[in-house]
Amino acid sequence: MEHFISRRDIIKSMGVSGCAMLLNPLLSHAKTNQKMMLQRAIPASGEKIPVIGLGSWQQFDVGQTAAERTPLKEVLKKMEELGGKLIDASPMYGRSEEVIGELTTELKNNDRFFFATKVWTTGKQEGIDQMNDSFKKMGRKKMDLMQVHNLQDWQTHLKTLKDWKAQGKVKYIGVTHYTDSAHSRLEQIVKSKEIDFVQFNYSIRSRNADKSLLNAAKDSGVAVIINEPFEQGALFRAVKGKELPAFAADYGISSWAQYFLKYIISHEAVTCAIPGTSDVKHLVDNLGAGLGKLPDAAGRKKMVEWIDKI
């Protein structure tokens, strides 16, 4: 929860006018054209998805009470309203799959999202059983994206997923990890061209993927999902009490979240970043990073230099 508190503190410090500045640009765009958020094509098909999605680790692992679920329901409603699409989950994330499935069913918008979940177990039959359970929990007959979580028994599960893709049970398949140490293995798999998506960690300070993984994905025609965009809140703690640099306005950046996310999605290999949140204001802020101008190479360098100095 630390990164939510840190961002909340930052937004509080901006006052009412500051919050309005964060929220109004995206809301006004949404009223005129909900499709204005930048979208990127999935190389395997050409299908386009918005560049900002939603992660569910911790935030959606809740019980049955209205106090726990109402804020999440509001997040999902607002996400659809503002043109968001990709929601990422996993059996590792406790009740997240079940909560997402139940809330989107209640909202009658289950089929309007791009659902991405994972298999996180060892053994062929164990993987099949777990994935079928995920279908049931998320209320899906066909999953948009099924990924092998943290490369656990990935060779076994990819064989199953290739069969399921051929059968039409899953639309896309992929692999994930969240540490720099896994990037070389991910790159090997990416270059095999046997997957549609790869998911890994990348941020304005954690740039190991810049060495070769991002370019390998681009060259191999593999879509990229970025996790840990805020470094579990460490980025917000690093900039607490600091004002955005003046040049941020050149890219329509009105918050630190947008600064961090715009850096990520400005890399042409990135298809979607998935910050997690259970707060509607944070969701609106995050989605705002998908609007307007993105920094070019010179702008990205300037953004990194500023962050590296703090």
From TrEMBL:
Q: InterPro entries per the record?
A: NAD(P)_OxRdtase_dom_sf, NADP_OxRdtase_dom, TAT_signal
Instruction: Pinpoint the NADP-dependent oxidoreductase domain residues.
Output: 52-296
Q: What is this protein called?
A: Aldo/keto reductase
| Lineage, opening ranks | Bacteria, Pseudomonadati, Bacteroidota, Cytophagia, Cytophagales
